[in-house]
Amino acid sequence: MGGLKALVIHSSRGRLSPLVEGVRRGLESNGWTVDTVAANPADSRPIAGGYDIVLVGSPALGFWHGRAADDIEPTLRRCRRLEGISAAAFVTPHAFATQSALRHLMALLEREGAFVRDFATLSTPHQAEEFGKRLARLR
What we know:
Layout: E1 5-10, H1 17-28, E2 33-38, E3 53-59, H2 72-77, E4 86-92, H3 98-111, E5 115-121, H4 125-136
Parallel strand pairs: 1-2, 1-3, 3-4, 4-5
Helix pairs in contact: 1-4
């Protein structure tokens, strides 16, 4: 599987770093190269394309009507060549907002032309690593 590249974009809100590292470990253990980008709506630089899969992670925000963090959408718009690219989404759980937030995140990816192939609700680095291993097998 050498030569496959993944991009993990994650919100700067919440405590996602351990989960991002878990996803990274899962993908890298299967020969993938992984780049990570912390979402930053103030940054206007384009994010280069050329990835085999793009993952986006956010905390689930809200209580009943969940949504992804506000820094994700402007960061996704900076991505180049997402049309037709495999994608995955993950959120950290929060009350009744989890599923709505996950749907919101997947809709943002699809709006950019990505093809969402997998999604997860992650609470622990171990779950994140297993998710990364599962994603590595998508190709």
